[in-house]
Hints:
This is S-methylmethionine:homocysteine methyltransferase. With 298 residues, this protein is α/β, with parallel strands linked by helices. The protein has a single domain, classed as TIM Barrel (Alpha-Beta Barrel). The protein has helices at residues 3-7, 18-24, 37-41, 43-56, 70-74, 80-98, 114-118, 132-148, 162-172, 196-201, 222-233, 265-271, 284-297, and strands at 12-13, 60-62, 106-111, 153-159, 179-183, 185-186, 189-190, 209-215, 237-240, 246-248, 253-255, 273-276. The chain has an 8-stranded parallel beta sheet with strand order 1-12-9-8-5-4-3-2. A two-stranded antiparallel sheet has the order 6-7. The protein is globular, with a radius of gyration of 17 Å.
Amino acid sequence: xxxxxxxxxxxxxxxxxxxxxxxxxxxxxxxxxxxxxxxxxxxxxxxxxxxxxxxxxxxxxxxxxxxxxxxxxxxxxxxxxxxxxxxxxxxxxxxxxxxxxxxxxxxxxxxxxxxxxxxxxxxxxxxxxxxxxxxxxxxxxxxxxxxxxxxxxxxxxxxxxxxxxxxxxxxxxxxxxxxxxxxxxxxxxxxxxxxxxxxxxxxxxxxxxxxxxxxxxxxxxxxxxxxxxxxxxxxxxxxxxxxxxxxxxxxxxxxxxxxxxxxxxxxxxxxxxxxxxxxxxxxxxxxxxxxxxxxxxx
Length: 298
């Protein structure tokens, strides 16, 4: 079954934070490439993380390509051909993990924002000072490789800025690969400060987009975003917020309480969310609670 069809019938459970699962397993991710480094050094660890989420009840695995890019790998002396292989392998690893579990499973190829490659917290600000064409030129090569690997959907995620969303969608348009667009937000605005009504309007006319929403945000920002997304686009909504803890980019640490994350998922589903999962600080245990709660409601 295609993912888009499944969304017309029920809520589909996403996985949680790849970095969270890897850190719990003992991997050091203090690196500019973050979890994408393991595409090169320890791909089995990524497959194991995907499998842990599938076994916890996730139906969609988001690949470890969020921070993977041609410029980022080039800084490590990695060739363009090897970078292309690594990008494709991110999809193959998730697909391999899916083969170890029963039931429908889908692979979402992560397309992170330009700011993620800078590894300085820019994905929470946007406004990089790049032209639209420069953003298109950055995203196009890796998007083409990810599409060629055959994912079920592109996860255009943690986008802080309407300008970048428009640039990525320019590449997505005509690809024939389904995609969702998910912004990082604060309150009812993107991280760059644009109203969500304006942000969601950019998907109009892009046939590949099957869902819109938010991720990597505070749980309390989700319900309002779901309502706006539904009103503006009429599409299924995707939500996968952080646990409730907050990231301090300067100190590179998390603060706050993340114990109530899964309890709010029913409210999001009632509001129209059809793809529901977690982002930073939500590991397999949190997704297991989330999946169980949503299954009880259906």
